[in-house]
Amino acid sequence: MQANQFVALSFLTALVSLSVINSSQEAFQPIHSISSIDHTIKDKTAEDLQALVKCEMDSSLILSQAIKSVKNHAVKQQLLEFKHGCELRIKELEVLLDKLGLNIPSRTKDATSYLMQGFVAVRGLTGDKGVLKALRLNEKIVLNIYGRALENDLPDNIRPIIQSVYDNTKRHIQYVEDKLNIKAV
């Protein structure tokens, strides 16, 4: 890796770390006031659901960048499957939000989206392992967000959905870490 690539990578890593710290402390803000929501759903659950949709939208963008950057065909195929699952989760969560009378977050990019996409692109300059390391970071962020949601008092019809994605994200992390332990990715 050339010195200027190393400096850019170090800078982006620091920015992503700061962004992750800020987003994990503040979480995502609700999209609108929650006045039409079913009384059995608490405001925190509504915020969590909206944050999870936004998280999945960001993950889809990041996976798109990773798919463009990765060279290994088998890894690319697995990432395509991850992206497909991500899109299905977005639709599932959007339907749930709609049934609850909540606004669905738009697919616009925010600062964190741009930062993580750029992080994956720059890590891609270091090869497939760099892309996988960036994905591992993203998956850990996703795991953290879903984990925080599971700590809340969720309705019985919502908890299994969140738990399923949490468990699936753990499998994604395991896949990425397995690939990182293999010398020839």
Briefly, what is this?
Helix content is 75%, strand content 0%. It is mainly α.
Major β-sheet annotation: none
Q: Stretches where pLDDT falls below 50 for ≥5 residues?
A: 1-41
Note the gap between the termini.
17 Å
Structural class: mainly alpha
Task: Give the helix level as a range of percent.
Answer: over 70%
Strand tally, please? 0
Contiguous helical run count? 6
Our Rg estimate from Cα atoms comes to 17 Å
Order of helices and strands: HHHHHH
Q: For the record, what is the CATH homologous superfamily label?
A: Ferritin, core subunit, four-helix bundle
Number of domains: 1
CATH class: Mainly Alpha
Provide the CATH topology: Ferritin
CATH architectural type: Up-down Bundle
Average pLDDT over all residues: 77
Question: Which band does the percent of strand residues land in?
Answer: under 5%
Describe the oligomeric state of these chains in a short phrase: single chain
Question: How would you describe the overall organization of this protein?
Answer:
The protein is mostly helical. Helix content is 75%, strand content 0%. The chain has six helices and no strands. The chain has helices spanning 3-26, 43-69, 73-99, 111-124, 128-150, 159-181. Helix 1 packs antiparallel against helix 4 (111-124). It is globular, with a radius of gyration of 17 Å. The model is unreliable at 1-41 (pLDDT under 50).
